Amino acid sequence: RLTNKEAAKFEKEYIPSSQELKEASDDVAGGYCVASLIVALEGDLRSIFQGAANSVTDFRYALADLAAAATVDDGYSLFNAELLWTPSSPQETLLREDMLLDFPELLAL
């Protein structure tokens, strides 16, 4: 359900091929990108993200803690993970105004 809720925020779904991703990385356009990482792990790990939005450093620590938690029991504690991002098409640009309108819960780091 959480994945569907996050995916509903995106105007359209487009999954680029690996070749398109490679070409797009060579020709980066201006604008913003919003990424949503949805992870299903065994246990209550919400405390990992307490304060994660305080700074880029805290966010990186939270992601490192999440990665460590996902490797417990040889990875069997990780049930599912999905990464969503917008814009996904190299021809699209996400402007600041659109980002703030579509994703009002974002915090500036």
Describe the structure in your own words.
It is built from four helices and two strands. The protein has helices spanning 2-7, 18-26, 56-70, 96-102, and strands at 34-41, 78-86. It is globular, with a radius of gyration of 16 Å.
Would you summarize the structure shown here?
It is built from 4 helices and 2 strands. With 109 residues, it is an alpha+beta fold.
Biggest beta-sheet profile: 2 strands, antiparallel
Order of secondary-structure elements:
HHEHEH
Uncertain spans = none
Helix content: 25-40%
- Intertermini distance: 27 Å
What's the gyration radius in Å? 16 Å
Structural class: alpha+beta
Strand content: 15-25%
Number of strands: 2
Strand order of the biggest β-sheet? 1-2
List keywords for this structure.
alpha+beta; globular; single chain
